[in-house]
Amino acid sequence: MGVEIFPGFAASKVLYDSENSVIGVQTADMGLDKNGEKKPNFEPGIDLIAPYTIFAEGARGHLGKSLIDKYSLDHNSQPQHYALGFKELWQLPKEHPHYKQGSVIHGVGWPLSETGTTGGSFLYHLPNNQVAVGLIVDLNYRNPNLNPFEEFQRFKHHRAIAKYLSDGERLCFGARAIAKGGLRSLPKQQFPGGLLIGCDAGTLNMGKIKGSHTAMKSGMLAAEAVFKSLVAPQPEREADYQIEFEASWLYQELTSTQNFGANLHRFGEPVGGLLNVLEQNWWPKLFKKSVPWRVMDRTEDHMCLDGIDQSKPIDYPKPDGKLSFDKPSSLFLSGTQHDENQPCHLHLRDPALVIETHLPQYNEPSQRYCPAGVYEILNCDGQPQLQINPTNCLHCKTCDIKDPSANIDWTAPEGGGGPSYRGM
């Protein structure tokens, strides 16, 4: 069909021509050691050139982030907002008293409500006596002591959830940031030589906590826009995605939930939840259209942390090994693997900020917001020092989002590294 697939090769750099139009991507060099020196198996990256390049990296893609910045694609939108989603797959015994295939449970509130944090939860009854359980923690939380991983472990002890997991076996664990700003946070998705689609742009429908169908539709619309441009008598350097998007059900669906996340961020769960009920249920039934007002949240997630001296400590219970677990055992179930002798893919713009600023002000929050123990503060001869464990990385991108100084850049590691989820 004329399709070439390059599995195991990470796109590391956007390529531009002399007029600042995108002309393709460059793959990462393979076979470099920790110090960036060439190993015997070194292979240089290659340039992949195309009339149009479509970027679909998922939430907080590192190339997408650079494109948004270069072309100021987000200058007319509110900042993108994110949440960190946890998910576990459990196997239940046969004849489990509470298992009911097809049952769907969504929730809000405890335990996040105890710290004034917003988010949600889910429990899906899958075929073959399996359930998927998860917690979504909004990354605009204020308390630097909050540990999203521990909040998830605590959540599973709620009696409304624990009864479904009792006597079950945990099969897989995963974590990933999701883009939840919705229509208000969508950047301009077209630019000279390329398109930004799916969760790389932020097409997830937060009202449904679902983004696969919207991302696929975004890709289909991108294909239509590129095709029309290619067959035009005089192809434009910028394929007109926007006209396809605004004429689609994807635009209508995102319009219907355009205030969903901002309502919760601005007004909290009780009031924001009531507003969402009004906007999603009552208003469309009465007026047959979406609400005319706009609710905006213009504060970026990383700017929301309070100082450690202004924040209450949070005491998390030790895992019991039945419902709650520690990070190492969870990381094992994610199947995460990286070649240890490669350059670190997590870059600090200013390494001194961690010890000089973040540690005294926030007790270095990366120790807690990272769900995989990538960041640690060690005591080296009486002096604190940051240690980065890149081989633990789940590629959730939370550090790229929540660092209070926007000091961490996640980039793609050597191709093939990362989590290997089973059944997720």
Can you describe this structure?
By secondary structure, the chain is of the alpha+beta class. Among the domains are: 11-79 and 182-256, FAD/NAD(P)-binding domain, CATH 3.50.50; 260-301, no CATH class. Helix content is 27%, strand content 22%. The chain has eleven helices and 17 strands. The strands form six sheets. Strands 8-9-10-7-11 form a five-stranded antiparallel β-sheet. Strands 1-2-5 form a three-stranded antiparallel β-sheet, covered by helices on one side. Strand 9 and strand 10 form a beta hairpin. The longest helix has 28 residues, at 260-287. The two termini are 29 Å apart.
Describe the secondary-structure layout.
Elements lengths: L10 E6 L5 E6 L2 E3 L5 E6 L3 E3 L3 E3 L6 H10 L10 E10 L12 E4 L11 E8 L3 E9 L9 H8 L3 H7 L3 E11 L10 E2 L2 E3 L15 H20 L9 H6 L2 H8 L3 H28 L39 H8 L11 E3 L3 H11 L3 H4 L5 E6 L2 E6 L9 H5 L5 E3 L14
Parallel strand pairs: 6-13
Antiparallel strand pairs: 1-2, 2-5, 3-4, 7-10, 7-11, 8-9, 9-10, 12-13, 14-17, 15-16
Cofactor: FAD; [4Fe-4S] cluster
InterPro entries: ETF-QO (IPR040156), ETF-QO/FixC_UQ-bd (IPR049398), ETF-QO/FixX_C (IPR007859), FAD/NAD-bd_sf (IPR036188)
EC number: 1.5.5.1
